[in-house]
Design brief:
The protein is an all-alpha fold. It is built from 15 helices and no strands. Helix 2 packs antiparallel against helix 7 and helix 7 packs antiparallel against helix 8.
Length: 254
């Protein structure tokens, strides 16, 4: 059986750690809220109604792709494409191709940024590996104008950020929904994480006060991982109804 992502790939390491995955979607949740195509996330009403549920649904699809055979991963990608095509048909208009690329670009950026924040710096070869995996996802989705490699992608990513981000009524509402579903303390933690990993252009649009209290806490958390106390910390910080789903993300080292 040929795997979509090689067994020893850094991408499997990134997506096999619950804390890294949660940081990926903490960053993406901020950028989603600023995207000019965010109205598509409101069309079905599912995201503002249950942002945490949608988070774990998205995590599930992403992990199916990363940890499956090529055939199974392609089936998952095709299913995602089918779902979006149905939404487009119901609305009577197409999701812009650049909006699909933006989501793909978020997964690339936050996979790298989250792992580097929590674990270590990635080599250029490892960053290329991350890019290649999601590049293959984009090709399967028939996305256009995808750069061939990580180096060429960097200026394209910057251009997308400049062109496609704006603060809107959807931005404000989505953050209100995050706070409603997370509670005040967890919401403040979310904001702290977002300030650490979102690009400066997004941070400038979202946060008037960009002071970050989480930096020393991240250091403490890294130490807690060394002494196997990180699970206890996550159990305190995360909503109880999602604890089992979060535990299932962690894949023991072989």
């Amino acid at each position: 059986m040929e795997l979509f992502v090689e067994q020893n790939s850094i991408v499997r390491e990134i997506w096999g750690k619950s804390d890294t995955v949660l940081f990926i979607f903490a960053g993406a949740s901020a950028e989603f809220a600023l995207n000019k195509a965010v109205d598509w996330l409101y069309y079905t009403g599912k995201l503002p109604k249950d942002p945490l549920g949608r988070l774990f649904s998205t995590v599930g699809y992403a992990r199916k792709i990363v940890f499956s055979s090529i055939e199974e991963a392609n089936q998952s990608i095709d299913f995602i494409t089918h779902i979006h095509a149905s939404v487009e048909k119901n609305r009577g208009m197409a999701i812009p191709d650049w909006a699909y690329r933006d989501v793909l670009f978020m997964l690339i950026h936050y996979s790298i940024a989250s792992f580097e924040l929590l674990e270590r710096k990635l080599s250029n070869a490892e960053k290329e590996e991350v890019y290649n995996v999601f590049y293959c996802v984009g090709l399967r989705m028939d996305l256009k104008e995808l750069p061939d490699n990580y180096k060429d992608w960097l200026p394209v990513r910057d251009a997308h950020l400049k062109e496609n981000l704006e603060k809107s009524k959807f931005t404000t509402d989505l953050f209100q929904q995050y706070k409603k579903h997370l509670g005040t303390i967890r919401f403040k933690l979310l904001i702290g994480v977002q300030k650490l990993i979102v690009p400066k252009i997004a941070k400038d649009k979202l946060f008037k006060n960009q002071f970050v209290l989480l930096k020393p806490i991240i250091k403490i958390y890294k130490i807690s991982k060394l002494v196997k106390m990180d699970s206890a910390i996550k159990n305190l910080l995360l909503p109880s109804e999602y604890k089992n789903q979060i535990k299932e993300i962690d894949i023991p080292k072989q």
